[in-house]
Amino acid sequence: MTVQTQPTMRLSRRRQPLVGLYAANVVSGAGDVLMFLAVPWFVLQTTGSVAQTGITAFFSTASVALSAVLGSAIVDRLGFQRASVVSDVASMLGVALIPLLYATVGLPFGALLALVFIAGLLTTPGATARSSLIPDLSRLAGVRLERATAAADGMTRLSRFVGAPLAGILIVVIGTSNLLWIDAATFAFSALAVALAVPARLAPQLTAGDEPPAPQTAEEREPVSSVAEPSRGYFARLAGGFVFLWRDPWLRGATLVVLVTNMLDAGQSGVLAPAFVKQVYGNAAVLGALIAAFGGAAFAGTIAFGAVGHRLPRGLTLGVSYTLGGASRFFWIVLLAPHPVAMIAVQAVCGFFIGQVNPLYDTIAYERVPAAMRARVFGALTAGAMLGAPLGGLIAGLLAPAIGVEPSMLVFGVIYAAATLSLLVHPSLRLAGRSPSH
């Protein structure tokens, strides 16, 4: 009995940091959804302006991109665990200021923009730090990297599945400003979970029963070895992440595609979808149901990828799933507007396909980026991916009043499909197509 129990107990202890990280991601992710729905709905309710909603979306996403650029080197210097905790505590205070000011001295539109910008600025370093922890924690836990990334993305999807309908209900019951107090509490939980579960100094070692790192071909190793470790200067460290990203052909090509799709997603989710639901249904609960169906099915798709993803052809899976899950939903939401139940069901189908995209993308990136540069490179990836997002909200806010909300969705869908279908013919996909041997 003792011989069988001790290894099990050791394995359980080794998995506790990974489980704690997942718990932090679930709760903070749910809080992000609460704010994501509360802020645009608050602007629409108080101003009735789609254009001002677009401006708000610009400020919220611009801060994410700026923080990803400037914060990654700080994450490397502080350490992943400490940076996550500090970021969450600061985010808690920043978000709490929104309902506090609204309930006391008032919250004019300019002040709201400033607080939304600050909230995004504070949140991103924590997300980068938690993402950078996954390879080390998966190794410590003895979990295959594809499954660890799928589980991490699945936790995010699960938080959206729970948070979206909850937000729609809470907006009606307690109001948008009170909802943000709950969002602040989620950041406090995330900080506490990471502080208690994840060691501040993590140096996982291979033990009996662990799988060694998968070997890479010479072609796959080349982008890593072509970039020397930058000096210790702050700006040199920042530049090192972007230089690495630019010299790696797969990361560069994929990031350009994500830049375009994130721009369109920001315009859709931050402006067009709320305006569409308010215009057609007049009820925030419908918006919550759409996001919940998409997020819940994406969670199922992520779990499916975690089970069989290491056996799938990477390039084909990425291109097809991205198109069916990302681009097609722009068309379905317009075509099925008279049938809300069918529209929600099709959103779920799209979600299942999109659930495979993030864990596959992250797995390839983790394999290609050395641990010493992980925060800087993933910060550069986030910055590159989010660079177009601020424009998405502005473009949607200008396009919808000019041609209508539904035609704007169709235009966004066509551009989105062109971007994702390009993955099927992109030359650098041959690097992603080689699944590492295990």
Notes on the protein architecture:
- The chain has 438 residues and is an all-alpha fold.
- Helices cover 82% and strands 0% of the residues.
- The chain is built from 17 helices and no strands.
- Helix 2 crosses helix 8 (234-247), helix 5 (145-173) packs antiparallel against helix 10 and helix 11 runs antiparallel to helix 12 (340-354).
- The two termini are 31 Å apart.
Q: Which secondary structure elements does this structure contain, and how are they paired or packed?
A:
Blueprint: H1 2-47, H2 50-78, H3 80-103, H4 109-141, H5 145-173, H6 176-197, H7 218-225, H8 234-247, H9 249-280, H10 284-308, H11 314-335, H12 340-354, H13 357-368, H14 374-386, H15 389-403, H16 405-421, H17 429-432
Task: Describe this protein with a few key phrases.
438 residues, mainly alpha, 17 helices, globular, disordered N terminus, disordered C terminus
Quick structural summary:
With 438 residues, the protein is an all-alpha fold. The protein contains 17 helices and no strands. It has helices at residues 2-47, 50-78, 80-103, 109-141, 145-173, 176-197, 218-225, 234-247, 249-280, 284-308, 314-335, 340-354, 357-368, 374-386, 389-403, 405-421, 429-432.
Oligomer: single chain
SSE string: HHHHHHHHHHHHHHHHH
Overall morphology: globular
**Main sheet attributes: strand count, strand direction, barrel closure:** none
Low-pLDDT runs of 5+ residues are 1-9, 203-231, 433-438
Total count of strands: 0
SS-based structural class?
mainly alpha
The tally of helices reads: 17
Approximate strand percentage = under 5%
Rounded average pLDDT: 77
